[in-house]
Specification:
The complex is a heterodimer.
Chain A (H helix, E strand, L loop, with lengths): L1 H16 E15 L5 E9 L3 E4 L4
Antiparallel strand pairs in A: 1-2, 1-3
Chain B lengths: L1 H22 L10 E5 L3 E9 L4 E3 L4 E5 L7 H26 L5 E11 L5 E7 L9 E7 L2 E9 L3 E11 L4 H4 L1 H13 L3 E6 L23 E20 L5 E27 L2 E19 L2 E6 L3 E12 L4 E5 L2 E19 L3 E19 L4 E16 L8 E6 L2 E7 L4 E18 L2 E17 L2 H6 L5 E19 L1
Antiparallel strand pairs in B: 1-2, 3-4, 4-10, 5-9, 6-10, 7-8, 8-9, 11-12, 12-13, 12-14, 13-18, 14-18, 15-17, 16-17, 17-20, 17-21, 18-19, 20-22, 21-22, 22-23, 23-24
Classes of the chains: A alpha+beta, B mainly beta.
């Protein structure tokens, strides 16, 4: 019975601590040419979510 | 095709607006300039052509590229800065809604590399416009763990700017506080505001291109508004029964057609606190939902004994294709959802079978408004019925049966937050034995209407931190049909 209770407490604790962090990476290159032309190349990557333990208080 | 064009135009407007705020000119690109790939990581690449990014400083005989200089025009900066703040706040409102909870976060790592033309000599990097911040690092603290951080490094060919932006679903407390919002907005104003001066012998000042204005330059409405509509039809027959000793079959057939409109409004309140300095507050948030529904509830009862029972079932959830729009580069989708359940209460004193039905038409328009301190709603609604019918029961028996069809109609951003409406039309058939050969029959019906707004993220924090608000709006009840049967 106690072991079952501990298991429930652990599950609740993990539920409270785990958080999902989504990441987005943007890489931008601005190239300036001497003829007055400029090109911006923007690449955006969205990764799969990662779950991490936070230390939020 | 028209919808795709509208979607692209909205994206082009939103995406280029950000560059206009940063560089004072509007880049251009077409659908062909966008490439997507999706494996484990979703990647979007856009190639943009820009004109007017480089200007010439006659006095110092050098070329300049500036971020957040606002054309060095005080009047224009006074108008554009609140629009820039609004765009950042709105973007974060929608990101925070997507995240649902303050535990979750979106970390954006942005690297901007500027490459000057060959033969350029970098002369100086200095603060732009009114910024006094040394152009090496910046920090904006919205509160609650929501931060922007940036670092600038010179390179041989130009510079590299590295930004880290953390947005979570929690409250941006510093922005919400009238006094500390002044500091937040000042640091946001100065965030990555700098200019780079360089010389290049090959470049001719006359060959430089002109800046391209953005439509936002003349749009100083101070709010963000959106509206969309969708329509659909659904027909469903639901049958349920109990076994084994007593059998009842309740067939509730419903034919529905739905047209729904939704609109959202975020109205920013600004208080000028000094030269290029403001305090921010949410002045007004409005969400409205206006569905038009026709429904035909029908009950077909067949029972072989005495019975008192409640039967219930989830009928269906109807989710048409989402509607997309962009806030800056952030894609936002609005999901319309229509969920119907059914509940039938039956009470029979003897075995009997008969059926009842009617047609309901219902229109409602609900608007929920947060004015910076309280929630209010306004509603207009109308309901009517036609063609009620009550077939002669096969036996002279006392009967009570009631069919309820509770609907939830919602228009949710990221399927998380937005306005919703709950509508419960019902139909009740009753018979009573009045004399030895007469049975009185009565059909009553009506509906109850409630509605509200489901909240999440920053917007939830701005609106009194209410998770949701729901009002009981209307109760309507009427006798649809009354008759007597002789046996």
């Amino acid at each position: 019975m106690f072991r079952k209770l501990m298991f429930v407490v652990m599950i609740l604790l993990f539920g409270a601590l785990f958080a999902t962090q989504y990441t987005r990476t943007i890489t931008e290159k601005i190239e300036v040419y001497d003829n007055g032309l400029e090109i911006i190349t923007r690449q955006e990557k969205i990764c799969q979510s990662s779950t991490q333990i936070t230390t939020r208080t | 095709m028209t919808a795709d064009q509208k979607l692209f135009d909205n994206f082009l407007y939103e995406a280029t607006k950000e560059y206009y705020f940063l560089y004072g000119t509007t880049p251009n690109f077409s659908v062909k300039d966008i490439k997507f790939s999706a494996d484990k990581t979703f990647t979007a690449t856009i190639v943009m052509k820009v004109e007017g990014l480089v200007s010439y400083d006659k006095d110092k005989n050098r070329f300049v590229i500036a971020r957040k200089r606002f054309e060095n025009n005080e009047k224009l900066a006074d108008l554009l800065l609140p629009k820039y703040f609004e765009s950042q706040i709105e973007e974060n409102i929608f990101i925070a809604s997507f995240l649902k909870s303050e535990k979750n976060s979106l970390v954006t790592e942005r690297t901007v590399e500027l490459v000057l033309p060959e033969g350029s000599k970098l002369e100086e990097i200095s603060p732009a416009f009114v910024s006094k911040t040394q152009p090496s690092s910046w920090y904006v603290d919205f509160g609650g763990g929501n931060t922007y951080k940036a670092e600038l490094k010179k390179t041989e060919k130009g510079f590299i700017l590295k930004e880290t932006m953390v947005i979570n679903g929690g409250a941006p407390k510093n922005l919400m506080d009238e006094k500390s919002s002044v500091n937040v907005l000042q640091s946001l104003r100065d965030y990555t505001a700098f200019e780079i001066a360089f010389s290049n012998e090959k470049m001719k000042p006359d060959a430089l291109t002109e800046t391209v204005e953005h439509k936002v330059k003349s749009d100083f409405s101070g709010n963000w508004a959106f509206s969309a509509s969708q329509s659909g039809q659904k027909t469903l027959t639901f049958t349920t029964s109990t076994t084994p000793s007593v059998q009842v079959t309740a067939t509730a057939r419903i034919d529905t057609s739905l047209t729904m409109q939704v609109s959202l409004l975020i109205d920013h309140g600004w208080v000028k606190t000094g030269m290029f300095s403001w305090s921010w507050r949410l002045k007004r948030f409005e969400a409205s939902v206006s569905p038009t529904i026709t429904i035909k509830p029908l009950l077909d009862i067949n029972v072989t004994g005495t019975l008192e029972r409640t039967l219930s079932a989830d009928l269906f959830t109807y989710r048409p294709s989402p509607i997309y729009f962009s806030i800056s580069f952030v894609p936002v989708w609005l999901q319309f959802e229509f969920t119907v359940n059914a509940e039938v209460y039956v009470k029979f004193s003897a075995g009997v079978s008969f059926n009842v039905s009617t047609n309901y038409s219902h229109y409602a328009s609900l608007k929920f408004t947060y004015d910076g301190s309280t929630w209010n709603y306004s509603a207009s609604r109308n309901a009517s019925y036609s063609g009620p019918s009550f077939s002669k029961p096969t036996a002279k028996a006392g009967v009570t049966e009631k069919l309820s069809l509770p609907f939830t109609l919602s228009a949710y951003i990221y399927s998380v937050a937005g306005p919703f409406m709950r509508l419960s039309p019902w139909l009740k058939a009753e018979t009573t034995v009045s004399t030895s050969n007469r049975l009185d029959a009565k059909l009553t019906g009506g509906l109850t209407l409630s509605g509200g707004v489901q909240m999440a993220g920053w917007l939830k924090a701005f609106c009194d931190n209410l998770p949701s608000v729901e009002y009981n709006i209307w109760t309507w009840e009427t006798t649809l049909y009354q008759t007597s049967f002789t046996y």
